[in-house]
Amino acid sequence: MGTPANPQKFAVLNAPSRIDGMGAFAAEPIPARRKIGEIRGETISVYEAWERAKKLDRIMIVEVSPRRAIDASNSADPLRFTNHSCCPNAVLRIRQGRVEIYAMRDIDTGDEITCDYGETHHEGQLACRCGAPKCRGNL
């Protein structure tokens, strides 16, 4: 069957983030509206995702449908460390069960790649640390 194609379209490195823990950083310039890459992982039920989330300090789970989720906790994909920002430079899209990340604007080498997580399991109880001028204050 062979090895699946590399879903990363641009070079991304992981490094400590001023937002939270590790982050995903552009290792080369990324033009606006281009696919940066994907986050792959174990396909699980949404119920299993919620159960796992209760036990984790760092949650790397994305719901891709009302019934399915992707747990990227054991993934090697660098974009799994994409942090939240209330003023993101990228957007997460679900396409045919895949978690894809696209640049919203030009991203320079060394910039942290961020997405707006939207609604999360934190239900507004987790303080946001993105530092954006118009930060909502919580996730």
UniProtKB/TrEMBL annotation:
<dbReference type="GO" id="GO:0008168">
    <property type="term" value="F:methyltransferase activity"/>
</dbReference>
<feature type="domain" description="Post-SET">
    <location>
        <begin position="124"/>
        <end position="139"/>
    </location>
</feature>
<dbReference type="InterPro" id="IPR001214">
    <property type="entry name" value="SET_dom"/>
</dbReference>
<dbReference type="GO" id="GO:0005694">
    <property type="term" value="C:chromosome"/>
</dbReference>
<protein>
    <recommendedName>
        <fullName>SET domain-containing protein</fullName>
    </recommendedName>
</protein>
<dbReference type="InterPro" id="IPR046341">
    <property type="entry name" value="SET_dom_sf"/>
</dbReference>
<dbReference type="InterPro" id="IPR003616">
    <property type="entry name" value="Post-SET_dom"/>
</dbReference>
<dbReference type="GO" id="GO:0032259">
    <property type="term" value="P:methylation"/>
</dbReference>
<dbReference type="Pfam" id="PF00856">
    <property type="entry name" value="SET"/>
</dbReference>
<keyword id="KW-0489">Methyltransferase</keyword>
<keyword id="KW-0949">S-adenosyl-L-methionine</keyword>
<feature type="domain" description="SET">
    <location>
        <begin position="8"/>
        <end position="118"/>
    </location>
</feature>
<dbReference type="InterPro" id="IPR050777">
    <property type="entry name" value="SET2_Histone-Lys_MeTrsfase"/>
</dbReference>
<keyword id="KW-0158">Chromosome</keyword>
<keyword id="KW-0808">Transferase</keyword>
